[in-house]
Amino acid sequence: METKQLQPTQSLWHSPAYQVLLRAGPRLKPLQQVHAHLIVSGSYRSRALLTKLLTLACTAGSILYTRQLYFSITNPDSFLFNALIKASSKFGFSLDAILFYRRMVTASIPQSNYTFTAVIKACADISALRIGRPIHSHVLVRGYGSDLFVQAALIPFYARSGDVVEAKNVFDRMPERTVIAWNSMISGYEQNGFAKEAVGLFYRMRESGLEFDSATFVSVLSACSQLGALDLGCWLHDYIVNKSFDVSVVLGTSLINMYTKCGNVSKAREVFDEMNDRNVVAWTAMISGYGMHGYGREAIELFRLMRNRGPPPNGITFVAVLSACAHAGLVHEGRKAYARMRQDYGLVPGLEHHVCMVDMLGRAGFLNEAFRYINDLKREEQAPAVWTAMLGACKMHKKLDLGVQVAEHLLAAEPGNPSHYVLLSNVYALAGQMDRVETVRDMMIRKGLKKRVGYSIIEVGQKSFLFSMGDRSHPETTEIYNYLDELMLRSKEAGYVPASGSVMHELEEEEREYALRYHSEKLALAFGLMKTTHGMTIRIVKNLRMCEDCHSAIKFISHTANREVIVRDKLRFHHFKNGLCSCQDYW
């Protein structure tokens, strides 16, 4: 069921008044002059001319003037309301689009699929779930529940509002699905953190025989980035090249992010160098990619090229640069970059810049300077994330007294965040003060706080497999555990010694043998070695920071198994090869 949107008649298009409106375009002052002319000439009674004037005023960005025009019109019709709702939604005035829709309903003017598509998009843009649900009811009452355009608008509305289940329900009810509907559902999964479901739906789309477009690739590449699914990401890249798709800035940046987050920085740089058009987002993505892999020098060199030949860096670019300096220990370069923010570009440092500076100084051992940096910030700038970076540095350098002082700030600011207690417990354990470890643990129990569950993902044969600590859900659990036991035995013979400090303080309720040997990344690694051929690189994604013992064990396993292993944890990448790690134990 579809209602056609009426258009101005042919005679109106050629009328002098309409031509004057077109020449005025979306510019406020000329429009106001035309408005005055319409009133004087008597053309103000033409509903079509008023509708065009309203949409141009909205396009010009003057919603206030648009409202004034609307309230001056008596008995607006469906054509005017639909044009007004669509223009308001299209140019970012979502709340006004919804208000105009409500006035349309109040005036008992029939709505069409044209109306619903525009107002649902407005709800999607501001994630207005409570407002949009009643509008969905209106859709059903008016008989547009099976309209393809309305359904295609409902999917991103529910997805952006966080209701992925209802988005999928709408998708499943569609009698036929366009590429836009598939893209919306895949994007909805990906943006809500359901990367595995996004990839699964993409495989269904591929099986349906429907042609992909650039929007499909952007969403699926982002899902690959979350999962570390390099094989699928490479397949998509090959498809893009073979089908001669135009690699736009958005698509090129998606490829860069996919390659860097899946552990192939050199391929990301190839994509970057081949891009015809590179905006600040593309440059920043490549700099960030170098940084997360510990290639600080390369990040600084690319930043230099950007300043000389690229677009002006923004605040996010400086976060990427400072983070790269922090991971690589480039304190001098980091200080220079921080100074350039204000001096050369007039940018005011924000929370993430402060976190990077404290992290950089703290990792490098300048703990007193990092502490002074925090104290020099305004009270409202001393956010928990800044203190967390400081506490991590205290743990790294085993500075107990300062660590306790920092922890007091953290626990006062966020008493319900379990990660702060865990980090403080680690500081005490490394200092050998196990009585205090127990005290912190008792505090967590009393408050009902639990550690975040860690898991690792590995891709084998374009399928992703998830492991958690002590995981026995896999059908080949016995074989995986036996193989891991063998790996650990060979590693011990090569000199590996378990990090006993970790055994003592990183336990929750699990038995001690699981606390180290059967961490998720070790299980994923054992599975990967079992299922891949010799010479293939193993890639693992971990949701938390890798522990000291796993870092040590994987170095030995990379040597004894003669394999390259790449692990992406919460903070950075670790490239293990021949018993060494790319971070050089600076992490």
Task: Please outline what is shown here.
The protein has 587 residues and is mainly alpha-helical. 66% of the residues lie in helices and 5% in strands. It has a 6-stranded mixed sheet with strand order 2-1-3-4-5-6, with helices on one face.
Can you tell me about this structure?
- The chain has 587 residues and is mainly α.
- The chain is built from 32 helices and six strands.
- The protein has helices at residues 10-13, 16-24, 28-41, 47-59, 63-71, 78-90, 94-106, 113-125, 129-141, 148-160, 164-173, 179-191, 195-208, 214-227, 230-242, 249-261, 265-274, 280-292, 296-309, 315-328, 331-345, 351-363, 367-376, 384-396, 400-413, 418-430, 434-447, 477-493, 500-505, 512-517, 520-531, 548-560; strands at residues 455-460, 463-468, 538-542, 565-568, 573-577, 580-581.
- Strands 2-1-3-4-5-6 form a six-stranded mixed sheet, covered by helices on one side.
- Helix 24 packs parallel to helix 26 and helix 25 packs antiparallel against helix 26.
- The chain is globular.
**What is the tally of helical segments?**
32
Largest sheet: 6 strands, mixed
Kindly state the percentage of residues in helix. 55-70%
What's the total count of β strands? 6
State the low-pLDDT regions, or none: 1-6, 503-513
Strand content: under 5%
Name the structural class. mainly alpha
Tertiary shape: globular
Cα Rg: 29 Å
Calculate the mean pLDDT score and round it: 90
Distance between the termini: 61 Å
